[in-house]
Write a structure and sequence with these properties.
heterodimer; A: 230 residues; alpha/beta; Rossmann fold; six-stranded mixed beta sheet; four-stranded antiparallel beta sheet; 6 helices; 10 strands; 29% helix; B: 393 residues; mainly alpha; 17 helices; flat
Amino acid sequence: MIELKEISKFYGKGGSRFQVLKNLNLKIEDGDFVVILGASGSGKSTLLNVMSGLERPENGQVIYDGADITELSDDKLTAFRKHNIGFIFQQYYLLPNMNVIKNVRMGADLAENKEFEAVIEAVGLKDKRKKYPSELSGGEQQRVSVARALAKKPNVLFLDEPTGALDEETGRQVLDYVCKLQKQYGFTIVMVTHNLNIAEMARTVIKMNSGKISEIYTNETQKTAYGIGW
Amino acid sequence: MRRRKLLMGLDGEYMVIGIKDLAKLFAITIVSCCAVFVCSLFLNYNIDVADIKNAITTEQGLVMYDALVASGKVTAGVSGGCLVITTIIMLIFYIKNYIDSHGKELGILKALGWSRLNIAKHFWIFGMSVFAGTLLGYIGAMAYMPIFYEMQNAEELFPQLSPQLHFGLAILLILLPTLFFMLLSVAYAYLKMKNPVLHLLKEVQRVKVKSSKCENEDLPFLADLRKSTVRSRKIVVFFVSFSAFCFSAMTQMSMSMKDLASESFAWMIISIGLILAFMTLLMSLTSVIKANTKTIAMMKVFGYSQKECSHSILNGYRPISYIGFAVGTIYQYVLLRIMVDIVFANLSDMPEYNFDYKALIVSLVAFVLSYELILYCYSKKIGRQSVKSIMLE
């Protein structure tokens, strides 16, 4: 379980210092599918970064199964991410000099996962495993980044606007792969998006506004990527 | 008029290329300074000494004269030529890096309707780094010349000379290289600017897709990254090996030269060698880290340790630098052998020259220590790099 206690985060210095996250408290159950919704500047990406250990909050605790990761040194925090966390960003950030297999191995080698070919197959890129990022479409590149993140067998998968750079069809396809793989591997999903429709796929929806959680609700039924509007 | 203001306002108060960017060209200034310093000394001496050829009466004096003129030509040609090639490669390297990292600004200018030539012509300013270097080198050579002239005629085999100023040489060594490098900057920028506007705006960098036949799929990610980092920037391979080459050749040559020439000459050689070696190495490693910012950030995000990041990015260059060191050792031995056995062969009191193992050991130990220290510092720099560098886009 992930637990956030009294999380505060500030940006800037002196007179331009402003609070991005305002004393947030939150609990996320293992295996949950959480969507964080909010307008631009609401603090949702910062929350994701703090929750995943990419940024440190000024105040508060981020607790994973009883252990506070804000207390960890940089090296231990890196090791924590290595063993627990997967990331998918809007801008895929694939390594341009490496083909699909090598990009996926970036995640797989961390978990000593020899079955990474199965993950490539699961995201439908078996035939393109030797292609380079420049030879792939945007959707295919995002699927490589999905495979790369999942090949390291994370307990929690963080997604920051994963469909932001994709068209509707490709976006649905990528989300569908993520959902199917979650059912297969059982990891927790925390996804940031500004797309209200995507929230219908989640079990838990967290709405953010001006650095605060304005609403949390649970969907009784979760829609599929092809069942939501766009 | 309005478009001109936009162009000027983007990256500095009155130009596309800002002062910070020009400061990065310091390495070019140093290399061109060294090139002109060496060439000015030897060519100026050769011009001046030609005037007194008829005044040399002894046979030993004539032998010495021929040897000095020949060695001056060789030294100016080899070192000047090598350094000019290095400057060309460095300049192209800098312009490429500039265009790659300022793609958005340049893309906006192109999108607004500025022609390639209109943008490229602003790159003449890159040539000014050569002007600064050549001017400094020439002034330095002029200041050092009286001592150099005395060294050349230490045995007083012919009449003493006082250095003369040759404007033709100044034009040849200062103005012509400056003009050449200004034109080269504009021409190269013009060629590089042919990328489509969208590529520039998105800072898309061309990646050569290599044949899958030569790939080893069983290679672990970190080993593969190490290889691909080296393979993807061949120009850095050249600079790293050149840096080790300079260090090895110049330090060993200067130590061996204490017996063959004056101590002052040896100090000049070692100073030029060390400046070139360190400038080139620092420039290369900085550019490697800059080019791999996103890769390093993603590796950290995924949980790779600082050690794993720095090893995979920097360690691939270690064998290359040691190869450069070995080539430098062979080069300095062959060059001194030629000098002793051919150029100065007829001089009666020429000391015997053998391979200097002591110089090799001293040079190698100094190289290993300084190289490893620099790698350690850059490894720490990688450690300090924030993962936010990719999130801020």
